[in-house]
Write a structure and sequence with these properties.
With about 150 residues, the chain is an all-alpha fold. Helix 1 packs across helix 2 and helix 6 packs across helix 8.
Length: about 150
């Protein structure tokens, strides 16, 4: 089961967390829990269970991080200490990039997620869209911001 599903599980975690070590930990924790709790998975449902477990664990990790830490982790290289040290110029640049995101819903979703700390479901309900749409807009916004900051 590990050999069959590890890479898919890791790739999903990587899409959500953007951190190789955290992704490896998430996948390892899931397999450890299956072994420790002696969970028996049926072949037809094991992939769905494993992928949902990865998604849920990743979302829990993100939910427990502070807003600033999440934004820094997603937008900047970990080696860039200037943001952490209060570089107002970089923060101003970041805010300008966010202000110019298109379509406007992408900007609103980004602000709701990281400034208001709303969950994907809360954002989806507020905007009248699906959670997948929220995730897609966040992913695209983060990629745009990364490109502008490099």
């Amino acid at each position: 089961m590990f050999r069959i599903h590890y890479q898919k599980m890791y790739n999903l975690a990587r899409c959500i967390l953007y951190d190789e070590d955290e992704c490896k930990d998430v996948v390892s924790e899931i397999f450890s829990k299956i072994l420790a709790d002696q969970i028996t998975l049926l072949p037809e449902s094991e992939e769905g269970y494993l992928m949902r477990s990865v998604r849920n664990r990743c979302l829990n990790i993100l939910a427990h991080k502070s807003t600033k830490e999440k934004v820094v982790k997603l937008l900047l290289d970990e080696s860039d200490e200037s943001f952490l040290n209060g570089d107002n110029e970089l923060l101003e640049r970041l805010m300008q990039i966010i202000d110019h995101l298109d379509p406007p819903i992408r900007q609103a979703i980004l602000r709701m997620r990281y400034l208001q700390e709303m969950s994907y479901q809360e954002i989806a309900d507020h905007e009248g869209v699906s959670k997948v749409t929220v995730y897609n807009h966040l992913s695209q916004a983060i990629e745009i911001i990364r490109k502008h900051l490099k």
